[in-house]
Amino acid sequence: MANHINNFTSLFADDAKLYGKSSTQAERCSIQDDLNTLQQWSNTWRLSFNPTKCTALHLDKNNLQHNYVILSPSGPPSTLENTKSEKDLGVLINSELTFDKHISTAVKKAKTKLAMIRRTFTFMDKKMLAQLCSSLVRPIREYSYSESSQLGQVVHNY
At what angle do helices 149-157 and 100-120 cross, to 10 degrees? Predict the structure, then answer.
């Protein structure tokens, strides 16, 4: 499959992503051709794409927001929904490449875990708090956004 695709593809488990520059009509046609090739490949291997789960994320505010189509073997072609943000392996990416929403979601999760710890344990010394934070809150921080000083501040202020 890779030798028939012109743009960059990323495959992970049951997730496929196609990345391409779309400044010119030729580049947009190249992306559409690659989508058609991916669709043919999926039909050959009987791994059909679910059009309702397929979206197009246009990066850059000056992007023309071209509509791309997925061909369906059993029905009419489906236009991909244009989206402002997409979650990729747990990281929320938006069209302006800012991570504010992702960071705020991680902070909210950390606060929720800390509130659960506070409600669950009536007595807690520093060692116990450190162990609970280490096992319940720290993984959120490390997985979500390791450099978030805001998330680190939440744990520190607790």
Answer: 20
